Known about the structure:
With 240 residues, this protein is mostly helical. The chain contains twelve helices and no strands.
Amino acid sequence: xxxxxxxxxxxxxxxxxxxxxxxxxxHPPHPGPFTPTETAILSAAIPHIPSHGFTHxxxxxxxxxxxxxxxxxxxxxxxAFSLVHYHLVAQRLALANHKHIxxxxxxxxxxxxxxxxxxxxxxxxxxxxxxxxxxxxPTNIPTSIAELTSLSDEIWFLAGDTDVDVNWxxxxxxxxxxxxATELYMTTDKSPDYTDTKEFLDRRFRDFTVVGKLAExxxxxxxxxxxxxxxxxxxxxxxx
Length: 240
């Protein structure tokens, strides 16, 4: 049985509320959620995650490396989840640095929006390579879902999608579903360089057009949204 707090209806409602703060040239993204001091500690803690996981130990080591006293970890009321949150935000924002995807060379044919979208999503997944074996650790449902929503919006925005028609929500919902399913698959992938995950992602994108044509009603939109949220939560070890 799915707990009430993790039901598809509650997850989809949360996503719809979060999606009101959409990403566009007229509505720039909100400032990051961390102060300079918090950022210094969290960024210094990231290299300790492969060895210590998303734990208070990694957070304390980050504080020490950044030149702060041990008590500075009290700055984070969410505890170890602050590391998860920082990783999600940092990896999402880092997508803007992939200039080889976003801007084609003068002598190259520009990449299409769909191609850019898939390449950016893959780069985001590769941002989990060093910590994927630690991924099933602390979670915060509202923040995790909000970041999934922001990620799909960020990718479409960076890929150059400027449409604001009725398909705006559908495209972001489908991309969230693809990411959630692929991240879950990646947690058990033992293939070299995650080639099996890459093939899994390619298959999901081949289904993209078919799913996009099917997801025309509000009911189906809610279903895809809930499925994406549930997959991400499952990839973090929540049994639903």
